[in-house]
């Protein structure tokens, strides 16, 4: 015997809403005012202050500080 598969699918329970992502993408802008930037991920719950990293700026051709700004 075959099961009756003609009826529409009716879920027994509702799926709860998904949780928000903890990590966010931030833009690291060069302090040498070259316009060069990196994109990095940051855990917004554990790192509440602005992110500052010393990285290589190929336009200035040296290591400079990069400060966090929002991605638009």
Describe the protein.
By secondary structure, the chain is an all-beta fold. The protein has a domain at 23-69: Single Sheet (Rubrerythrin, domain 2). The chain has no helices and four strands. Strands 2-1-4-3 form a four-stranded antiparallel β-sheet, with no helix packed on it.
Layout of helices and strands:
Elements: E1 23-30, E2 37-43, E3 52-57, E4 62-69
Pfam families: Ribosomal_L33
Protein name: Large ribosomal subunit protein bL33
Keywords: Ribonucleoprotein, Ribosomal protein
Question: What's the quick description here?
Answer:
The protein has 72 residues and is an all-beta fold.
The number of helical segments is 0
**CATH homologous superfamily heading of the domain at 23-69:** Ribosomal protein L33
**Terminus-to-terminus distance:** 60 Å
CATH classification class of the domain at 23-69:
Mainly Beta
Rg from alpha-carbon coordinates: 24 Å
Identify low-pLDDT runs. Answer: none
Number of strands: 4
Inertia-based shape: elongated
**Residue-averaged pLDDT:** 88
At CATH's second level, what is the architecture of the domain at 23-69? Single Sheet
One letter per element, helices H and strands E, the order comes to EEEE
Structural class: mainly beta
**What fraction of the residues are assigned to beta strands by DSSP?**
35-45%
Q: How are the strands ordered across the major sheet?
A: 2-1-4-3
The name of the CATH topology of the domain at 23-69 is: Rubrerythrin, domain 2
Tell me the helix content.
under 10%
Largest sheet: 4 strands, antiparallel
Keywords: Ribonucleoprotein, Ribosomal protein
Organism: Bradyrhizobium lablabi
Pfam families: Ribosomal_L33 (PF00471)
InterPro entries: Ribosomal_bL33 (IPR001705), Ribosomal_bL33_sf (IPR038584), Ribosomal_zn-bd (IPR011332)
């Amino acid at each position: 015997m075959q099961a009756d598969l003609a009826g529409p699918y009716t879920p027994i329970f509702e799926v709860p809403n998904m949780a928000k992502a903890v990590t966010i993408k931030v833009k690291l802008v060069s302090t040498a005012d070259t316009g060069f930037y990196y994109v990095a991920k940051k855990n917004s719950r554990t790192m509440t202050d602005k992110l500052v990293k010393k990285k290589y700026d190929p336009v200035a051709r040296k290591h400079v500080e990069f400060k966090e700004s929002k991605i638009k």
